[in-house]
């Protein structure tokens, strides 16, 4: 009997995001994880393509769409609802970066942004002189506007401050996390290297006692037992951990009822090595019993990837 969406289990990762933010890197990571990957699929072909792959008994698909399909991207949320209603597991993933980062990347690669020169399929855009090349920053901001609705409904990864190897690791961890209604992502970062744009909640813990100023602890991290013991002796650290935990316990059920798939909680300190790392690890342990939890350590992961 021919397979249909109703009688075959399938998981789809839909990758969208800003041009230059790492969609091809994410696709390669998913290909390594056993997904059948398709790049730049027009939204009009999403449902027919999934039906075809169901007939082939495919179970893991990764599909990338970008702003070149701007006129039909508004169809995507409704199409995803159709797939979910038929039992397909859909994980939307949005790759983002700051405008400054994207400008630098385009400058380094000398590639042209898809919206930097308007072509024939531009009736969705504001009327401008179509013979002039759009300034790169304007093209990036236009793309950000066109993709805003998709970003709102997806799990966001900010690739501004991470290496390609880190991004691959983050994507693989997302697709291998156990399937629950809500997955918590706890992320440590250093304020001196900028704040992540993918955080749903962000907490500043720079006011807490800093192990950096203890010579014996300076080279260690918040995962190391001497640092753990030092921070556990600090009343303010205990109070901060308890207050963040209480806040999340109070609101996570509401977010789950709102059909959120992922919630990213970012904890920042000065260097992203001691206090934020410790709190991320402790929070992940506290919530692992009820929710699927993932941890990221932006600065430490960057050093390891290098």
- Quickly give the structural class: alpha/beta
Over the alpha carbons, how many angstroms does the gyration radius reach?
21 Å
What is the annotated CATH architecture of the largest domain?
3-Layer(aba) Sandwich
Q: Helical proportion? A: 25-40%
Core attributes:
306 residues, Rossmann fold, five-stranded parallel beta sheet, four-stranded parallel beta sheet
Description of the molecule:
Helix content is 40%, strand content 17%. The strands form 2 sheets. Strands 2-3-1-4-5 form a 5-stranded parallel β-sheet, sandwiched between helices. A 4-stranded parallel β-sheet has the order 7-8-6-9, with helices on both faces. The relative contact order is 0.14. The chain folds into 2 domains: 11-176, P-loop containing nucleotide triphosphate hydrolases (Rossmann fold), CATH 3.40.50; 183-305, no CATH class. It has 306 residues and is an alpha/beta fold. Strand 2 (36-38), helix 2 (46-55) and strand 3 form a beta-alpha-beta unit. The longest helix is centred in the last third of the chain and has 23 residues, at 235-257.
